Amino acid sequence: MGGKKRWQPSVLVVEIAKIPVEGLPLDAEIPATALHLPPLPDVTVRTPIRIRGLLSRVTDQVYFDGRIEGVLQVPCSRCLEEVTTGFCVETRAVYLPPGSELASEVEAEGEELDLYQHSGNTVDLHELVYDQVVLAVPVQPLCRDTCAGLCQVCGGNRNITPCTCQEAEGDPRLAVLKRLRVPESS
Ligand SMILES: [Zn+2]
Ligand SMILES: [Zn+2]
Question: Which of 9, 30, 143, 176 could cysteine-pair with 76, CB 3.0–4.6 Å?
Answer without folding.
Answer: 143
